[in-house]
From TrEMBL:
This is Phosphate-selective porin O and P. It comes from Flavobacterium terrigena. InterPro entries: Porin_dom_sf. It comes from the Bacteria. Gene3D superfamilies: Porin.
Length: 407
């Protein structure tokens, strides 16, 4: 089925472009408006527009080489085709538009429709969205395109604690308002939800990303109760943006044919995100932190935590920006990512000792951008991860070199 979907999509695109005069193609750059929020990331992408038609097509590619060692053991050199994302949009009519994103990961091993929605604008503050939506928890979940980041790996907290690029069938409202240097935005959706896999999985711990393995979430809600995701964000053009978000709902099946079989159990996620650019030196700082609360049955061992938290902080410093090798606005940057995740916050009931299952990582980087839409990046990772019993941490370190570009 995955292979068939891939062939159909590429045959469609190839046939479409084969019949089009190249002179009719027009490159549409990313939105140049400075006051943008993270919620605008889905539409703030370069694309190729077919003249006199409402259709635009674009995408991005991520690929890299990596060599990591954990406690002296390494799998050697690895070349990884991380992901290929293809997005298509259409201005259906005045105030009605469509956008979709299909992502191919690990060379086509995993294919997913990450986003496919119809937006209907009634007023700048009141817009309706329905389809497959990306739940706006934190900032990275929506603003995740590889070419925007200086690091080959996505943040650990955004992919191994939160379910990275978590999308579901759903609907809701969103809107924005400008006032001088200030900008306000909000999103509120009801959608498909989590299921029992967040506490019944191969990881052997409370693990929200396991819910992404269930394709039925696009057609059926396990609990019968929708997941609510809401976010508000405020931006000042001179200070930066701060966002507050919440995602919560019942995850377990507690009724069957009208018969109560269990008590409803909730999962709640709270997140804060922030980004700013320091004046004069142009240092870009972005990060997010999230807290997770899961109602775990009392029959489960303490191996399954009911509280988790973690986040990341990226610091990017441009060191050179000028014409290089015929690229007019090339830039050279140094960067560093700091990360921390605790999958089981608390203490053992029997000993009052701290429960382990936490990780921290530091990742310095050098990146070169021939244009703003392409990045070549060299990263070094030093990571320490402690097991649930607090034994001496396993140490992972190594290098990765990759390229990511819009097309």
């Amino acid at each position: 089925m995955k292979l068939r979907l891939t062939l159909i999509l590429f045959l469609f695109i190839s046939n479409l472009f084969a019949q089009i005069d190249p002179s009719l193609l027009k490159r549409i750059p990313k939105d140049t408006v400075k006051q943008l929020l993270n919620m605008d990331a889905m539409y703030n992408r370069p694309s190729l527009n077919i003249n006199k038609t409402p259709i635009a097509i674009g995408g991005y590619l991520e690929t890299n080489w990596q060599k990591l060692t954990t406690d002296g053991i390494s799998e050697g050199h690895q070349f990884q085709a991380r992901r290929l994302s293809v997005f298509m949009s259409s201005a259906i009519s005045k105030r009605i538009k469509f956008l979709s994103e299909i992502e191919y990961e690990e060379g086509g091993k995993e294919i997913a429709i990450e986003f496919a929605s119809v937006d209907v604008e009634f007023h700048p503050l009141v817009n309706f969205r329905a389809g497959i939506i990306i739940n706006p928890i934190g900032a990275f979940n929506q603003n995740h395109d590889g070419p925007k980041w200086e690091f080959t790996d996505r943040p650990i907290s955004a992919t191994q604690m939160l379910p990275g690029t978590f999308s579901n069938s759903g609907a809701g409202l969103f809107g924005k308002k400008y006032s001088g240097n200030w900008m306000f935005g909000y999103e509120a959706y009801f959608s498909g939800s989590f299921d029992n896999s967040i506490i019944d999985n191969t990881e052997g711990k409370t693990f929200l990303p396991s819910a992404k393995e269930n394709p039925e979430r696009f057609e059926e809600i396990n609990s019968g109760e929708p997941l609510f995701t809401g976010k508000i964000a405020v931006r000042n053009s001179k200070i930066g943006e701060i966002g507050l978000s919440h995602m919560g709902g019942i995850y377990n099946k507690f009724t069957d044919d009208g018969i109560t079989i269990d008590v409803p159990r909730r999962v709640n996620v709270y997140a804060i995100d922030f980004n700013t650019t320091l004046p004069k030196i142009k240092t870009f700082i972005t990060g997010e932190w999230a807290w997770i609360n899961v109602e775990v049955p009392e029959t489960y061992t303490q191996q399954f935590g009911n509280k988790q938290h973690g986040g990341f902080l990226d610091i990017v410093q441009p060191v050179l920006k000028r014409k290089m090798l015929d690229w007019e606005n090339a830039s050279l940057n140094i960067a560093c990512r700091l990360e921390y995740v605790d999958w089981n916050v608390g203490r053992f009931n029997e000993t009052n000792g701290n429960i382990g299952e936490h990780l921290w990582s530091i990742m310095p980087a050098i990146s070169f951008r021939p244009t703003s839409q392409t990045v070549i990046r060299l990263n070094y990772r030093l990571q320490k991860q402690t097991d649930i019993f607090g034994n001496p941490p396993s140490i992972t370190d190594g290098y990765s070199l990759g390229i990511s570009t819009y097309f």
